[in-house]
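Deliverable D2.4 — example input (structure tokens):
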């Protein structure tokens, strides 16, 4: 081939690559995802902050904003009322049990919300009752006491209040609702006697305590009300959603916490979206989380990349109500058959 012809061919090939690249860029103009998480001071909030920051720093066209909200019920109603354009980029964090309740139109949801779709599970959340009162050792000891729960409508209360009913004390205690960051001061000043707290069991050997709960456990000697597997089974019979059960060994959450082997209830939290979200955007988001899973440890030290990758498609509900874009990625990775 003559030199002149070679130059022409190279120019043509270059133009083709340039045009192809331009089409790819135009097909993926900047998309700003709107993340909606729970209240500040919780591990879930920090995880949302981490993903938002990583997207803004690392992804070429996926960007993100982050808004704190009070409860899953508030987030579902908020997202439901968004215009179509914003629904396509909404990434609320829900407990999978909320999606079940919302799809059925159960209280506190005002109607059936059928648009919710899962993108990636980011954590399991463990729940337990903790107190500074050494005389509160059993569920019966709660009678006449003041029990602190999360703000009204918060998902954590969907587990706490049925558990109090299983114990037969729901109508015999005084329930008050607080931001979890207020629990420690409320316990120390006597505003409440018992708090419904959370932690995150990342694996059988690794558990982290939510920031607000660290303050509770670090302030004074704690006492925990035992939760049994029989309690869990009774609770699941009462509700269409299901919660898991686990047991912490003595001191699993730090010296003296819990003071004895103690059972806990567990649910999954997930990044979700709506049925109208673009498949390629959600596929790209799931792919980014998977490929950048190691980065979460910089924001939440107890997290690990392997743990995130393992749990992303781990909720049994994923195959039922996962977004098609996320499902496509998980099937490519062999996480879902």
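Example output (designed residues):
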């Amino acid at each position: 081939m003559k030199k002149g012809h070679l130059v022409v061919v190279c120019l043509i090939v270059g133009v083709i690559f340039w045009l192809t690249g331009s089409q790819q860029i135009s097909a993926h103009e900047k998309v700003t995802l709107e993340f909606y998480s729970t209240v500040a001071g919780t591990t879930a909030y920090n995880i949302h902050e981490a993903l938002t920051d990583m997207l803004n720093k690392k992804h070429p066209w996926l960007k993100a904003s982050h808004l704190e909200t009070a409860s899953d019920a508030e987030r579902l109603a908020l997202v439901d009322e968004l215009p179509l354009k914003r629904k396509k980029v909404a990434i609320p964090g829900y407990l999978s049990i909320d999606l079940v309740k919302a799809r059925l139109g159960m209280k506190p949801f005002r109607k059936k919300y059928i648009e919710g779709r899962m993108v990636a599970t980011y954590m399991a959340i463990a729940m337990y009752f903790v107190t500074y009162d050494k005389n509160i050792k059993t569920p019966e000891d709660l009678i006449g006491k003041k029990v602190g729960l999360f703000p009204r409508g918060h998902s954590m209360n969907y587990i706490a209040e049925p558990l109090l009913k299983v114990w037969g004390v729901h109508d015999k205690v005084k329930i008050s609702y607080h931001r979890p960051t207020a629990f420690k001061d409320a316990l120390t000043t006597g505003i409440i006697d018992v708090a419904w707290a959370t932690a995150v069991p990342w694996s059988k050997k690794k558990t982290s305590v939510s920031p607000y709960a660290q303050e509770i456990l670090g302030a004074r000697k704690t006492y925990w009300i035992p939760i049994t597997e029989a309690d869990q089974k009774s609770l699941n019979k009462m509700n269409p959603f299901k919660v898991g059960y686990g047991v912490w060994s003595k001191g699993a959450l730090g010296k003296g916490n819990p003071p004895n082997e103690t059972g806990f209830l567990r649910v999954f939290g997930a990044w979700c979206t709506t049925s109208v979200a673009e498949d390629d955007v959600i596929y790209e988001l799931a792919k980014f989380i998977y490929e950048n899973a190691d980065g979460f440890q910089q924001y939440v030290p107890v997290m690990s990349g392997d743990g995130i990758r393992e749990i992303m498609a781990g909720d049994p509900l994923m195959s039922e109500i996962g977004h098609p874009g996320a499902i496509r990625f998980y099937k490519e990775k062999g996480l879902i058959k």
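Confidence is low (pLDDT under 50) at residues 6-26.
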